[in-house]
Amino acid sequence: MANFKLTISDIKGKSVSKELKDSDANPLLGLQLRNETDASIVGLSGKLKLTGGSDKSGIPMRNDVHGSARKKVLLSKGVGLQDAETGQRKRKLMRGNTVSEEIYQVNCKFDGELPVEAPPESSGESIEEKTEDKKE
């Protein structure tokens, strides 16, 4: 059974984290990075574009590594390589571009704006009443 932590970002830069379990996560299995899927799996209307992710031990997914297996890849720049100097190359462990059951986190981009959720109020008072009490 697949469990994913889905991080959804919108066009304004806001992001929300959702958790998908078991049968809700099945539509994501087998998708590759840069593919689009329906956003109804998280309760939104529109499309989600897969942009990245990582597995249970933090190994990042890379778009140019095919399949879902871990591979040692020689990198000169891009995802998974920090602060490379000119001409420097490093062999790093990367995860392929296909979503499988070993993937823990999936990052995606929503094609619209995420709905604004109202913060829960701790008591029946409104914010205006609380500020008036502080002024007195």
Spans of at least 5 consecutive residues with low confidence: none
Strand order of the largest sheet: 2-1-7-4-3
Q: Termini separation (Å)? A: 57 Å
Q: What is the succession of H and E elements?
A: EEEEEEEH
What is the 3D form? Answer: globular
Number of helices: 1
Category from helices, strands and their pairing = mainly beta
- Whole-angstrom Rg: 20 Å
What percent of residues are in strands?
Answer: 25-35%
Query: How many β-strand runs?
Result: 7
Overall pLDDT level: 85
Helix content: under 10%
Largest sheet, if any? 5 strands, mixed
Number of folding domains? Answer: 1
3D architecture notes:
Helix content is 7%, strand content 34%. It has one helix at residues 127-135, and strands at residues 3-9, 15-21, 36-38, 47-55, 70-75, 90-95, 103-110. The radius of gyration is 20 Å and the shape is globular. The protein is mainly beta and 136 residues long. It has one domain.
